[in-house]
UniProtKB/TrEMBL annotation:
Keyword Ligase annotated: no
Similarity annotation: Belongs to the aldehyde dehydrogenase family.
Gene Ontology MF: a single term: lactaldehyde dehydrogenase (NAD+) activity
Entry keywords, A to Z: Oxidoreductase
Organism: Natronospira elongata
Oxidoreductase as UniProt keyword: yes
Pfam families: Aldedh
Name this polypeptide is given: Aldehyde dehydrogenase family protein
Domain of life: Bacteria
Length: 474
């Protein structure tokens, strides 16, 4: 069966450079009708996706990764232009996307089932069988602006590896990276309809994607409120939800500050703090509080922010004026409520200076919610138990960081922290694309990380044979 016709766009949308508001590109925009056509097309391609042998899925993924690798600078230029990352951050994301696609290719050969001992039940002596993993079907992938290439790869790679069809609805601010990645898969020879990128707005294209019964799984990375709305509207299907955090990093009194401070500074300003692993809360033992605070402030003062195309810049802008307004208002409110600003709280257009606050009230939104900007609050603790209590006293739990030389303490603290991952002698911002990635509480449902999400994008199917042998098993 051939794929349905290419979806019809409903108009155009402008992709703007968040640095200065200039036009990057004008592209086709799709509404609910266009998304429905894309779903028709993917549904028609499902049988071909399922029939792709493992070696062909691997070839497509390897070839797509090679294409991205050969065009690294072009991908980095697009990432930097449409998004918030400096050119060096963009290059690092492209390198990660190459690895993510190659990991997906490698994991394809490891989609395995199990033999099942049916004769464990009396009366089933003549039964034997096994399970194998089959594709979920059509997967809807909704991706954010902060990692608009690698997070698309994290959804598309495992989906293709598992024999599924996938529709990507990229963030409306940063669709060009996903479109460029689609180009890589077309060059790799993927069949029409198996992978589509449909730019549009959540209120029409996104809503049509999540509510269609033919879409059997939604893989979403974004804000918690949006994730909850998707789950309320989507109906009976599988979900993968990564919904952010306000990650803590703990620095104990025996920590190596020469190691700790540069790590937490980097974790505080990566992608201008628009990062679910952003070091939003920095917990410092009272014995080293003053020294660690002063070193952290010095590090944040040394961050170079401005022209993201400059090789010398450490940090770029916030995604748009609304985001800059929101961060600025949140900082001002925290100060009005008793917080003390130690550095930052300066704005130039969509740029917001790295900002450090202390004495933020315990139940303040700056502590409880996700700021999604280059703002870090400092918190003093007297012992291990108090540090754990402060870290856990939020309805998020994605990553945490702990700096200590005490191995026993590292294990105790890591076990006690309520989160999906604990980075020992690293900031909360560290992530390996092959590792299981996700959180607890309000940080989401399920895990990414190529091999782990591939398990979610396939389902076990049992095959049982009831065969009577005249002389029993031989």
């Amino acid at each position: 069966m051939s794929a349905s016709p290419i979806p019809t766009s409903s108009g155009q949308m402008d992709v703007l450079d968040p640095q200065d508001g200039s036009l990057v590109e004008r592209i086709e925009r799709y509404d609910a009708r266009g998304m429905q056509q894309a779903i028709d097309r993917a549904d028609a391609a499902l049988s071909r996706a399922r029939r792709m042998p493992v070696h062909e899925r691997m070839r497509v993924l390897y070839d797509a990764s090679d294409y991205v690798d050969r065009h690294r600078q072009a991908f980095a230029d697009i990432l930097a232009r449409e998004g918030v990352k400096t050119i060096n951050e963009a290059r690092a994301e492209v390198a990660r996307a190459v690895m993510t696609l190659r990991l997906s290719a490698e994991e394809t050969r490891r989609i395995v089932g199990n033999t099942i001992a049916f004769d464990q039940r009396p009366g089933s002596e003549n039964r034997f069988g096994y399970s194998r993993r089959i594709p979920v079907g059509l997967i809807g992938a909704i991706t954010p602006f902060n990692d608009p290439l690698n997070l698309v790869a994290h959804k598309v790679g495992p989906a293709i590896a598992g024999g599924n069809a996938v529709i990507v609805k990229p963030h409306e601010a940063t669709p060009l990276s996903a479109i460029k990645l689609l180009e890589a898969f077309h060059e790799a020879g993927i069949e029409e309809g198996i992978l589509q990128v449909i730019p549009g707005y959540g209120r029409d294209a996104g809503d049509a994607l999540v509510t269609d019964d033919r879409v059997r799984m939604i893989s979403f990375t974004g804000g918690r409120e949006t994730g909850e709305r998707i789950m309320q509207r989507a109906g009976l299907k599988k979900f993968g939800m990564e919904l952010g955090s306000n990650s803590p990093t703990l620095i104990m009194d025996d920590a190596d500050l020469e190691q700790a401070i540069p790590a937490v500074v980097g974790g505080a300003i990566a992608a201008a703090g628009q990062n679910c692993l952003h070091v939003q809360r920095l917990l410092l033992h009272e014995r080293i509080y003053d020294e660690a605070r002063d070193r952290f402030i010095a590090g944040m003062k040394g961050i170079r922010y401005g022209d993201k195309y400059s090789e010398d810049m450490d940090m770029g802008p916030l995604i748009d004026e609304a985001a800059a307004d929101r961060v600025e208002a949140a900082v001002e409110q925290a100060i009005a409520d008793g917080a003390r600003c130690l550095v930052g709280n300066e704005r130039d257009g969509n740029f917001f200076a790295p900002t450090v606050l202390e004495q933020v009230p315990d139940n303040h939104p700056m502590v409880k919610d996700e700021i999604f900007g280059p703002v870090t609050s400092l918190h003093r603790f007297s012992d291990e138990d108090e540090a754990i209590e402060i870290a856990n006293n939020v309805d998020y739990g994605l990553h945490a960081g702990v700096f200590t030389r005490d191995v026993d303490a590292a294990f105790r603290i890591a076990d006690a922290l309520e989160c999906g991952g604990v980075m020992i002698n690293d900031s909360s911002d560290y992530r390996l694309d092959a590792a299981p990635f996700g959180g607890v509480k309000g940080s989401g449902i399920g895990r990414e990380g190529v091999g782990y999400v591939l398990n979610e994008m396939t389902e076990p199917k049992v095959y049982c044979f009831n065969i009577r042998f005249p002389h029993g098993w031989t």
